[in-house]
Amino acid sequence: MTNVLILGAAGHIARHAEADLLKNSQAHLTYFLRNAGRLTITDASRETRIEGDVTDANALSAAMAGIDIVYANLSGRNIEQLAQDVVTAMDHNQVKRLIWISTLGIYDEVPGAYGRWNHQMLDGGYLETYGAAATVIENSDLDYTIIRPAWLTNHDEVDYETTQKGEAFKGTEVSRKSIGALVSHLVTHPDKAVRGSLGVNKPNTDGPKPAWY
Ligand SMILES: NC(=O)c1ccc[n+]([C@@H]2O[C@H](COP(=O)([O-])OP(=O)(O)OC[C@H]3O[C@@H](n4cnc5c(N)ncnc54)[C@H](OP(=O)(O)O)[C@@H]3O)[C@@H](O)[C@H]2O)c1
């Protein structure tokens, strides 16, 4: 049985990934989050809940014991430091496989008018820090997969395609449910996209900005 540690387990994408994993895998899920009471355990044989903050090195390291795969669904202005904290704890516990949620645009890979709009919206702190966090991950010797979602929707659909690092980003949007499904797929196929960085979008959503803007 695969043991998965989910950091930021009450996050929006994380909740989709957890539902997908409970339904479509045999994995044991350890939820690591602040205010742990927000998450309800539905199957005590497969789910463990730990209250903790990723910046608490001792708590994070303790949570890694016996873990096969770390899925980090984190956010915040300190995302670069969070990346470093995760890498350090994984190295210390000899855990190799990491799935890391990032964002589109960190390599300046979004072409054309949408790329310019994305810069306008996300420059000034966000893109830079998310890029720096991805660099921390890529400079580690972990078996990572970085996921770069397009602008997120809450549509109840799984419909996505991916691009590789070095390719132009496609499309403008993708559902959180799709990203959760991709995370679940990578957990159940851990040999896929190792040391890869995937852009993820809903097909046929090209345009100068997401449809709702
Ligand atoms: N919005 C978009 O269109 C878009 C597009 C591409 C990528 N993204 C990025 O995708 C990522 C995931 O998205 P999402 O919708 O799932 O975000 P989310 O709901 O905000 O989830 C992020 C989680 O990170 C947790 N977190 C932050 N710092 C933490 C810490 N020190 N210790 C423990 N937990 C911590 C937060 O916990 P608390 O609940 O306790 O605060 C939150 O639950 C985010 O980084 C987001 O910026 C967003």
From TrEMBL:
Alphabetized Pfam families for the sequence: NAD_binding_10 (PF13460)
InterPro entries for the chain: NAD(P)-bd_dom, NAD(P)-bd_dom_sf
Chain spans, region Disordered: 194-213
Residue span, NAD(P)-binding domain: 8-190
Name recorded for this polypeptide: NAD-dependent epimerase dehydratase
Taxonomic path: Bacteria, Bacillati, Bacillota, Bacilli, Lactobacillales
